Amino acid sequence: MNAQELIQKHKLLECIQCGMCTGSCPVARKANLNIRRYMREVAIGGKATVHPENELWSCTTCATCELRCPKELSPYSFLLDIRSIAVEEGKIATTLRDALESIFKNGNPWGRIRGKRSEWAEGLNVKHVSQGTEILYFVGCTAAYDPRVQEVSRSLVKCFETAGVDFGILGEEESCCGSEVYGMGEKGLFEYVVEENMKLFNKYNIKRIVTSCPHGFHSFKNRYGEINFEVQHHTQLLASLIDDGKLKLSKELNKTIIYHDPCYLGKQNNIYDEPRRILENIPGVKLVEFDRSRERSLCCEGGGGRMWIDIPGERLAEIRVKDAVEAEAEIIATACPFCLLTIEDAVKTTGHEEKIQVMDITEILSQTI
Fold first, then answer.
1. Mean pLDDT taken over the chain
2. Which has the minimum average pLDDT: 90-94, 190-194, 206-210?
């Protein structure tokens, strides 16, 4: 993609250079990321520059810049196209390249073999969608392979079974949703992933999908083009099950919980109320809020391929943990596997293991039903 194409696609000549995008970017100061300057360079200079690795790959695709732009532009989407140019030119970190290669070969970015994808469900009575189920539970790569996040998958199964939800999985046939492929700028591989997944969904006549991951939810809902199925994040379905009286919360949990809004659930898809409604329905729970919550929520720094490349400096997740401790919360609740992993790691690096723990909403629910 040349400079002229970038100018037209992203309406760069409409940019008023107010700096709102750079000013609101959570990693701008840490990584010297100046999206406003990048956009100006292309619009005025007529040249698409591939910037230094620590700058170009620091963006978490949290969408804060898009939300704040007074001209309704999408600076981070522009940056993704610059990443695409970098990918084409081979200017990409080894860790990112390995993740992309693993997605193509194994259907996941974690370098794990396909035959291990269903190990999380061992000992559980989980059906394959070929047996004819109402809902496909699309587990996702991280929830399928990461030992910590597997607990989220198992907890969700418990919630589904308790509520009588008719669901099934794809098992070893499941592949990456492509969200992080898109975030890394590998558009060709993303198109391939979409095509293969749509073939699979059509093969089993999938009409309804529930995901554990906001990134998968966002991809299916907003990046797959025309789809013939309904997609929900698990917090949406769980909230409706509670509202309908199908999921009864009988056990008290006398804890102070603070909820962290995942960017791909909140900022990208405006889902703020359902997760909070779930927590508020749990007997004994005191729900408190971060100062930066909802559309002002601070990114955990896990999206946009950032799980596979480290940028020096204080991590945003560490700031999140410190804020939660100051709010006297005992549990940080979230609803995204990346948030769960980055914030839990930050609890350890900040030395707050004895003060606070990090849990997905499904894990909290499974303890109270």
1. 95
2. 90-94
Residue partners of 295: CB distance under 8 A and separation at least 6: 67, 266, 267, 272
The secondary structure of the chain, three-state, reads CCHHHHHHHCCHHHCCCCCHHHHHCCCHHHHCCCHHHHHHHHHHHCCCCCCCHHHHCCCCCCCHHHHHCCCCCCHHHHHHHHHHHHHHCCCCCHHHHHHHHHHHHHCCCCCCCHHHCCHHHCCCCCEEHHHCCCEEEECCHHHHHCCCCHHHHHHHHHHHHHHCCCEEECHHHCCCCCHHHHHHCCHHHHHHHHHHHHHHHHHCCCCEEEECCHHHHHHHHHHCCCCCCEEEEHHHHHHHHHHCCCCCCCCCCCCEEEECCCCCCCCCCCCCHHHHHHHHCCCCCEEECCCCCHHHCCCCCCCCCHHHCCCCCCCHHHHHHHHHHHCCCCEEEECCHHHHHHHHHHHHHCCCCCCCEEEEHHHHHHCCC
The pLDDT value given to residue 267: 97
The answer, yes or no, to whether residue 46 has pLDDT greater than 90, is no
* CATH code, 248-366: 3.40.50.10700
Q: Is the pLDDT of residue 278 over 90?
A: yes
Average pLDDT (149-168) is 97
Question: pLDDT band at residue 53, thresholds of 50, 70 and 90?
Answer: confident
Domain with CATH 1.10.1060.10 in the chain: 3-88
CATH superfamily of 3-88: Alpha-helical ferredoxin (1.10.1060.10)
Confidence at residue 308, expressed as pLDDT on a 0 to 100 scale: 96
The mean pLDDT value for 156-171 works out to: 97
Instruction: List, for residues 280-292, the tens digit of each pLDDT value.
Output: 999 999 999 999 9
Structural class in CATH, domain 94-240: alpha beta
Q: Where in the chain is the domain with CATH 3.40.50.10700?
A: 248-366
